[in-house]
Amino acid sequence: MNLPALTVHEAKEKLRKREFSSHELTEAVFDRITATDDRIHAYVTLCREAALEQARYADDRLRKGNDLSPLIGIPIAIKDNFLTRGVRTTCASKILAGFIPPYDAATINAIRAAGAVFTGKTNLDEFAMGSSAENSAFFPTRNPWNTDRVPGGSSGGSAAAVSADQCIAALGTDTGGSIRQPAACCGIVGLKPTYGRVSRYGIIAFASSMDQVGPMTKDVRDCALLLEAIAGHDPADSTSVNRPVPNYSEALTRDIKGTRLGIPKEYFVSGMQPEVEKAVRRAIQVLEKNGAVIEDISLPHTEYAIAVYYIVATAEASSNLARYDGMRYGHRARAKDLTETYMLSREEGFGPEVKRRIMLGTYVLSAGYYDAYYLKAQQVRALIKKDFDDAFQRCDAIVAPTAPTTAFQIGEKIQDPLQMYLSDIYTISINLAGVPALSLPCGFDSDGLPIGLQIIGKHFDELNLLRVAYAYERSTEWHTKKPNV
Amino acid sequence: MGLTREEVQRVAMLARLRLTAEEENRLTEELDGILHYMDKLNALDTSQVEPFTHAVDIVNAFREDKVTNQPNADALLANAPEKDETFFRVPKIIE
């Protein structure tokens, strides 16, 4: 049996039947990492010893036979912007290169309590700013389907690790598409939950009005299982919402007959790779065959989303990243006085994209420009949110592509920030509106690169999203395809 | 609008970033291009639009004013660039 290739639900069942131990599973995953990661570079930090210890503990509990912890003994990879107590957390930045957090993020606590084994910390674009994982201060991660291609970003390391079977599942974060776009590029499932559904306590902040934590998995059922483990109210995150968490994995299998799916015309425009459009259109037909009712809808302010996002997100980032001053933690440069210490520490510690965004965010918030940029952007953001509210009067979920193209070449867009930003065109509005959305595989282009289908739902309607996704997945076999690493 | 190099220097000072001359040049050009792209928002009349404040309707999240963590200077100082007993050492602030 190829253990690292298993899904969470498969591994879970087999662990309970004692077909193998968590220790064997974890060993197999680390063997797989050793055999493949010199080509993929998905991980920044590996936690082999601690993981095997956690696996032994899980095996003890499994042996006793009465442990129902939902993720017991399952090896899971974590994006390196989650604080992990005692394990180096870098955010792929030189400014945090040696940072060892004194506490765990709420979601780390949650999956620890669910019995998970932690394989290590995965690579990302520095401070989650990017769409290719090339902005890591350490190294770029490569796409397991073709190592000349990017894995997408910013959760590129988590996506590549799931796709290459270097873990059973992973966690990522999504501020403008950072779970869904890499999921699409790497042929896996990725969910950005509703803003407020999952606690962000202990996530290194990028743009606080949009950051969300979500699962990155090999299939839809796994996505539901992980969401169950991490969703819920947390008093330590004042934006998390106190609503009951449904049993997502049980409700998954209900059929989608009569579910109204909206197809936004603004998401099918020129500039989109023709093979992506074809695959998404074919996926819509599959959903229709499953009983969904297809409606043409409009999200009229879509073309403004990127401009709004790169004002709001950079403004929030510039203030969130003000904390990296070299005083209490992180890199401190040697300089003659306090101001010089700040300026040099930040100059040496941040990479080019982070500096670009801090500059842009500082500019749009600065005296004389606030109304023209920031206020204007928040007004247009209200219109974008209203687009979704209006659309959801007519449909239960929206179906669209996740990204306009399949994974691009490493180096192709890194010199042109605006071109890079445009690769987020279909994912960004979702974060601006705070609604949940999921990407799942729906085909391959002629170069053999995966294509992602995006399903967008109403606030707190993850259940419906997962149900539509599961209906599609059951009718197709894309999710069973593996890259040849 | 045309972003000038002086403006980039002013913003860099506000953001406490010391840029090299080469970075200043590059950023002036790049930011000018990005800001130009953002001008497309001016095509929309938003004079009657209330700005966005929050994605979902929630009320202010109050909590009890209660200490929940224990003092732990060692853990908190473990990442300090410089420390002195239970204090962070920082550069002199007042001349």
Characterise the protein shown here.
The complex is a heterodimer of chains A (485) and B (95). Chain A has 485 residues and is of the alpha/beta class. Among the domains of chain A are: 3-260, Amidase signature (AS) enzymes (Alpha-Beta Complex), CATH 3.90.1300; 303-376, no CATH class. Chain A contains 16 helices and eleven strands. In chain A, strands 1-3-2-4-6-5-10-11-9-7-8 form an eleven-stranded mixed β-sheet. In chain A, helix 4 links the parallel strand 2 (75-79) and strand 3. In chain A, helix 7 (220-230) packs antiparallel against helix 16 (462-475) and helix 10 (305-320) packs across helix 12 (352-365). The longest helix of chain A is centred in the last third of the chain and has 24 residues, at 371-394. The model of chain A has no long low-confidence stretch (mean pLDDT 96). With 95 residues, chain B is mainly alpha-helical. Chain B has a domain at 5-43: Histone, subunit A (Orthogonal Bundle). In chain B, 35% of the residues lie in helices and 4% in strands. Chain B is built from three helices and two strands; from the N terminus they run H-H-H-E-E. Chain B has helices spanning 5-14, 21-38, 73-77; strands at residues 83-84, 87-88. Chain B has a two-stranded antiparallel sheet with strand order 1-2. Chain B is flat and about 55 Å long. At the A-B interface, helix 10, helix 11, helix 12, helix 13 and helix 14 of A face helix 1 and helix 2 of B.
Topology of this protein?
The complex is a heterodimer of chains A (485) and B (95).
Chain A: H1 8-16, H2 22-40, E1 43-46, H3 48-64, E2 75-79, H4 106-113, E3 117-122, H5 156-163, E4 169-174, H6 180-186, E5 189-192, E6 212-217, H7 220-230, H8 248-251, E7 260-264, H9 274-289, E8 293-297, H10 305-320, H11 338-349, H12 352-365, H13 371-394, E9 397-401, H14 417-422, H15 428-433, E10 437-444, E11 450-457, H16 462-475
Parallel strand pairs in A: 2-3, 2-4, 7-8, 7-9
Antiparallel strand pairs in A: 1-3, 4-6, 5-6, 5-10, 9-11, 10-11
Chain B: H1 5-14, H2 21-38, H3 73-77, E1 83-84, E2 87-88
Antiparallel strand pairs in B: 1-2
